[in-house]
Amino acid sequence: MAYTDFLKQQCYIDGKWCDADSGATLDVTDPGTGKTLGTVPKMGADETLRAIDAAEAALPAWRAKTAGERAKILRKLYELMIEAQDDLGELLSREQGKPLAEGKGEIAYGASFIEWFGEEAKRAYGDTIPGHASDRRIVVIKQPVGVVGAITPWNFPNAMITRKLGPALAAGCTMVIKPASATPYSALAIAALCEKAGIPAGVVNVVTGSAGQIGSTLTGSPKVAKITFTGSTEIGRQLLKESAETVKKCSMELGGNAPFLVFDDADVDAAIEGAMISKFRNGGQTCVCTNRFYVQDGVYDEFVEKLAARVKAMKVGYGLDEGTEVGPLIDEKAVEKVEEHLKDAVDGGATVLAGGSRNERGGSFFNPTVIAGVKPDMKLASEETFGPLAGVIRFTDEADAVAMANDTEFGLASYFYARDLSRVWRVAEALEAGMVGINTGLISTEVAPFGGVKQSGLGREGSHYGLDDYMELKYLCMGVQ
Ligand code: ADP
Q1: CA dist., res. 359 & res. 248, Å (int)
Q2: Are the beta carbons of 173 and 203 closer than 8 angstroms?
Q3: Which residues form the Aldehyde dehydrogenase domain (predicted)?
Q4: pLDDT of residue 392
């Protein structure tokens, strides 16, 4: 097998591979070479409506299966993904640009949601509640929400789908998926594996094409019970507005602006390790990537010096080349955003300690960068950079640092390094974020609830809480004569 065996250039609707009604296509580009990898159909409202109808038609039989039956099929899907890990990882790296090791890692991470939720399906327990009257009994059951519309981003083309698909299928829901146009092949490869795993026609549908048309058809359809979205806060807000018309359930995993705090009592070397992984994974293009560093006076100089040394040694290259640690950014616009934040900081007096320019390879390659002397009012402290730019701000007082960390409308991930136990509790409780990494820069796992507070989103993905987002509670009140 090779990655080309998983490169599907058609959409998957109602168990059939199909083209757009108009025959129109979109090109998909390898951001590392600028060359076209292939095309996908440019679909719109009509094809989306057909996909929704297929998902609706497939729902009764899929939700009627026992959780154990669905779990067996999900287990099969998990095994197929792991068997194909190398090829799927390569396909992902080619369309997204991330280093191959990260691409393969994402497949394992993505597959873990399928495995986890298949197992978890069997534990979607309800509740019995002592009745409020002697002639009444109360039981609470959980049922699938129904047809789910999923809209997913390009930064994790596999895992951002599977952590929606896993719980949706486990719960007994059916799905229409609209992947990002930059990275549709990983989504279509998942559809191919769903077919191979024996998931019935209509249960999973993948539609590529016009984001606006497909999105508004999903949000506008009364047949779609839920929208699950990962992407920017701006588009999330729009989808929430559109979904209000038919009062859909919504899960929104939106933008972040993660702070990373290093206190005087921290293990600085460990903090550097955490900083590297939380800032530079996927070239800084994850919603939980550190966006701003706050480092206390006593360790500031040591931290910036060590961070700059590590970053200077990073290897920028094509995702599939041996030893590459930082691949290209997704496109030119992404590079321009990094440049804008860098210029704003340097104009305001910040100092470049590593990188600071585009890479000699051209295209959308940018050198990983460290800048010191950043001020809290600079752009990179308030807007998500989504690139390999680490800006370090100095602080003196713990309460001031926490206040600066919280001074944002976002509240997804946050990180801090400290060893004093009381401080660890104080800061962990005070940070306004859905997730806090304490003495670690890597927090993503299928077993824990991932999600944000404030304008970073609604709902949680992963863990048993993630299954609840795809289920409705139904309360049964029984009279006993
Ligand atoms: P990012 O590009 O930072 O991942 P976006 O919010 O722009 O964030 O994109 C995330 C997903 O939302 C992609 O699949 C994109 O195609 C989709 N999208 C963009 N605009 C719309 C829209 N108007 N309606 C529905 N989906 C959209």
Answers
A1: 45
A2: no
A3: 17-475
A4: 98
Which amino acid would we find at residue 48? Answer: T
d(CA 372, CA 355): 12
Q: What pLDDT score does 285 carry?
A: 97
For ligand 1, is residue 151 a contact (CB within 6 Å)?
yes
CA-proximal residue: ligand 1, atom 1 (nearest) = 231
**φ and ψ at residue 152, rounded to 5 degrees:** -130, 155
CA dist 149 and 221 (Å) reads 10
- On whether the pTM is more than 0.90, the answer is yes
Q: What is the largest CA-CA distance in the chain?
A: 82
CA of 130 to the centre of ligand 1 (A): 46
Helix axes 85-96, 100-121, angle to 10 degrees: 120
Q: Where are the beta strands (DSSP E) in 300-366?
A: 351-354
Which has the closest alpha carbon to 229: 289, 148, 292, 283?
148
The predicted structure's pLDDT at residue 35: 97
- Looking only at the bridges linking them, the beta strands covering 457-458 and 127-129 are unpaired
- State the complex-level ipTM: 0.92
Q: Whose CA is nearest to atom 15 of ligand 1?
A: 180
Q: How far is the CA of 236 from the centre of ligand 1 (A)?
A: 8
Instruction: Spell out the residues 6+ positions from residue 468 whose beta carbon is closer than 8 angstroms to its own.
Output: 142
Sheet holding 249-253, edge to edge: 16-18, 11-13, 204-206, 174-178, 147-151, 224-230, 249-253, 457-458
Nearest CA to ligand 1 atom 23: 212
Radius of gyration (C-alpha) of the chain in whole angstroms: 23
In the block, residue with structure tokens 């599939």 = 320
Distance 40 CA to ligand 1 centre (A): 17
Question: Which atom of ligand 1 is found nearest the CA of 235?
Answer: 6
Q: Output the six-digit token pair for 221.
A: 């359809």
Ligand 1: residue of 28, 95, 96, 151 to mutate (most ligand atoms within 8 A of CB) is 151
Residues of the chain below pLDDT 70: none
Residues 6+ apart with CB under 8 A from 195: 12, 15
Q: Which atom of ligand 1 is nearest to the CA of 154?
A: 4
* DSSP letter, residue 128: E
